[in-house]
Amino acid sequence: MVSNDHPPPDRSHAKDGTVTTDEPRPSRTRSISRKVGVLLVGVPVLLLGIALIPLPGPGTIVVLAGLAILSLEFAWAERLSGKIKDGFRTLFDRIFRHR
Fold first, then answer.
1. Overall number of domains in the chain
2. 50 falls within a domain
3. Which residues, in sequence order, are CB contacts of 78 under 8 Å at separation 6+?
4. pTM to 2 decimals?
5. Does residue 80 lie in a domain region?
6. At a CB cut-off of 8 Å and minimum separation 6, what does 70 contact?
7. Is 7 part of a structural domain of the chain?
């Protein structure tokens, strides 16, 4: 038995080889909801990591985890995370190269 409830979406091929469909894009409400959700999870993790930096605990790792969560939706978090990682790579290179 074949169901004809929904015909396949119309597909068009652009000159650059990409395929586009007439399917609707995610709604603006869904996009905003995702950003709010990422903020509600990422900011507390980031703040916990910042609080753990002077205290005993894995502060830097938690900060990077918070930035990783935030970078799902925010480019500034991804850039900041990259700068922190580069700084640690430079620090480790200096420490272990001088031995």
1. 1
2. yes
3. 67, 71
4. 0.61
5. yes
6. 38, 39, 42, 43, 46, 77
7. no
The answer to whether the beta carbons of residues 66 and 43 sit under 8 Å apart is yes
Residue with tokens 């990682």: 85
User: Residue 48 and residue 35: Cα distance in Å, rounded?
Assistant: 20
Q: Is 72 helix (H, G, I), strand (E, B) or coil?
A: coil
Asked if residues 49 and 59 have their Cβ atoms less than 8 Å apart, the reply is yes
User: Phi, psi at residue 12, to the nearest 5°?
Assistant: -130, 145
Residue in 91, 93, 66, 88 with CA at minimum distance from that of residue 77? 66
Q: Look up the domain containing 52 and give its range.
A: 26-97
What residue has token string 């650059």?
Answer: 16
Cα–Cα distance for residue pair 36/92, rounded to 1 Å: 36
Please indicate, yes or no, if residue 13 is contained in any of the structural domains: no
Per-residue pLDDT tens for 2-52?
555 655 555 555 566 565 656 566 677 878 888 999 999 999 999 999 999
